[in-house]
Amino acid sequence: MIDEAMSPLRRRMIEDMTIRKLAPKTQHDYVQRIKNFAVFLGRSPDTASFEDVRRYQLHLAASGVGVPTLNQTVSTLRFFFRVTLKRHEIVEHTHVIHEPRKLPVVLSVEEVARLLDAAPGLKYKAALSVAYGAGLRATEVVSLKVSDIDSKRMIIRVEQGKGGKDRNVMLSPSLLELLRNWWKAARPQGWLFPGRDPAQPMTTRQLNRACHAAAQMAQINKRVSLHTLRHSFATHLLEQNIDVRVIQVLLGHAKLDTTALYTRVATKTISEVMSPLEHIALKLKEVRPPG
What we know:
By secondary structure, the chain is mostly helical. 59% of the residues lie in helices and 3% in strands. A hairpin with a 4-residue loop joins strand 1 (149-150) and strand 2. Keywords: DNA integration, DNA recombination, DNA-binding. It comes from Bradyrhizobium icense.
């Protein structure tokens, strides 16, 4: 009954999302969250009152879901009521939760080398090396096509990254050599890293599993995911004194604030900064007569 009532509504919402160029995964997630809301209500979600929305948020919070899930649900409900239903009075009373940002887990250069060396096969070694060597997200790695590797200009083209933006990232000579070895071994045609069905790319799940397996084999005791390689890429560039604004462009960050977070984990940079206490100690040595 709920499905029948939702059908034209779902179509309308999908049209609204398509007009606004929301990514397919985002559209799928939005529809699923509205379906969950409808199940909670027991009736069509367009009949919901502000009190219903409030009850649903309370229900989610009480069931122990994390802050990111709560905020994603709020974003979905805001889109549904503001854009699809034009019911702004409900949107005014929904609030996202601002959670303190945790410092990302970062691997040392030596740990990255061990992880890449322990990758389960050439395909995954190449894919994980792209994630670290170019600072790509999991979705960006698996979406790469053979034609995106530009060896003449020594860049990798990233099409439709997060936020639907294209960008170019660097292609190092060692990464190019590794990718050429992979190409000679497997001769991929369309996708650079095809999945079990060559017509489809490798999934992000497969790539993350390979990353976890490599971290385990390399005996790295930190919580490692594919995103850890991206964090490590940014931090290691910062430690090489690369301008944070250049790193922002390479990562495809919309805001400099997001990239600036890495200044808090760049331990080499932090340890090389001279403490003002050290300056005082040096001054005192200069002032005091010898002996």
